[in-house]
C-alpha cells in the first residue's frame, strides 16, 4: 500500500524509475496497482527510458499474471492515457498475438473488444499483425479473433492491414479477393504490387501458373518483380525452366539479375540453372561471378563441383595477390589525369546503389563524403579487398528459411516481427520471424570483390578524380 501511494503522488522521476523496476520483480497482485497508478498519471512520455521501464514491468507479468494485467488494460480509463493506449497497450497486444496460443488469442480479443469505438480499435490492427508475423507457432483456436477481423474487413475491404490480417488468420474470401485484384491488369500497378507483396508468403499451389504468366507478360516491371518474388516460395521444376527462358529473352540486366537472385536462392532451382550451363543451354559468361559465389551459401558439394567445372575455383585471392592488384591499379592511376564529370557518371553507375557522396546515392554502405577519400591507397584497398574491414553496422547476414531458401543482405530492419534485407542491387526482402530457420553474420562484404575489373583504366582514373574531389560549392 505504501508503494501504491508513492506511485500515485511521487514527483521524483528517480523514485518512479525505481518503482517501475520494482514492479517487474513484485508479484502481479502487488505490481499492477503501481503500474496502473502511473498509467493514470501519464508522465514522462517523451523520456527515452521511463516508458520502457513500465513496459518491461507489464511484460514481466503478461503471462504469469495475465488476469491481473488484463483487468487493468480493459478499463475505459486506459484510453485516456497516452502512456496506456499508445505505448503499453500496443506492445501488450503484439505480445499476446505473438504467443500463438489459445490464451494469447483470447487476450487479444478481450483487448480489442475493450476499445471504445471502431476508430480506436483500428489503431490496434497493425500491432496484431506484427504479433502474428512474429509468432513461432499458430494457434488453431482463433475463430473469435478471425471472425472479429473478418467482420471489420468486410466493412473496410480497401484497408491493407485488415486485408493482410484476415488472410493471415485463414479467411478464404480476402485471399481470393486479393489474388483476383493482384492479377487484374486493369488495377492500379501500385495496388497490385502491394497485394502481390502481401500474398508473397501465402500463395497456394493453384496460383503458380498465374504468377508464371505474369512474370512472362508485358505488365509493368514493378508488378512482374513482385510476382517473381512470389515464385521464390515454390519448389517446382516449372519455375526453373520458365525463368531461364525469361532470362534469355530479356535484354534488361536488372531483370536478369532479379531472376538469378530467385534461382540461386534455392538449391533445386540453382541445380537446374547449373545443369543448363553444363548442357550448353546457358553460357557461363552470362552469370557474373558475384552471383555465382552465392551458390556457395547453399553448401551443396554437387553444386560446388559444377561451379568449379565451369567457372574455376572461386576462392578469394591471397593477400599478396590483392596487394599486387593495388599496385597495378596505382600504376593505372598515375598514367594520366581523370575527368571529374566522367567520374561522377562512373560513380552513379557503379557506386551510388550502395554509397552516398555529396548527398547523391543510397546509404546502404558507408557514406563516402566523410570517408578518408584523400588517401588513394585506402580507397584502392577498399576497392580490391572490400571484406578486409567491415564496420559493424554494415555487416551483412545470411538467412536460411524454413522452406529451404538462402538469402543474404544487409539487415536494415530487425525486430520481433522479422528481418528486412537489402542486397547489393538495393532490392529489399522481408522475412517474417516465423519463416526464419537460421540467421548468421556473413564474413563477406556486400560489395563485389571484382567491381574494379569492370572499369577500364581511364574510367578508373575518372572515378578517382571524382572520389577525391572537394564538395561542390553552395
Features:
two-stranded antiparallel ribbon, 24 helices, 7 strands, single chain, 5-stranded antiparallel sheet, 55% helix, alpha+beta, 474 residues
Account of the protein in words:
Helix content is 55%, strand content 7%. The protein has helices at residues 2-9, 13-23, 28-41, 50-61, 66-73, 82-97, 102-113, 118-122, 125-134, 143-155, 160-168, 172-182, 189-199, 208-215, 221-231, 237-249, 253-263, 267-279, 289-294, 301-311, 319-334, 340-350, 376-384, 457-467, and strands at 356-357, 360-361, 397-401, 406-415, 418-422, 428-432, 436-441. Strands 6-5-4-3-7 form a 5-stranded antiparallel β-sheet, with no helix packed on it. A two-stranded antiparallel sheet has the order 1-2. The radius of gyration is 27 Å and the shape is globular. The N and C termini lie far apart (65 Å).
Give a quick rundown of the structure.
By secondary structure, the protein is of the alpha+beta class.
Major sheet, described briefly? 5 strands, antiparallel
Helix coverage percent of residues? 40-55%
For the largest beta sheet, what order do the strands appear in spatially? 6-5-4-3-7
Low-confidence stretches: none
Please give the alpha-carbon distance between the first and last residues.
Answer: 65 Å
Percent of residues in β-strands: 5-15%
Estimated radius of gyration? 27 Å
Structural class: alpha+beta
The total count of strands amounts to 7
Mean pLDDT: 90
Tally of alpha and pi helices: 24
Shape estimate: globular
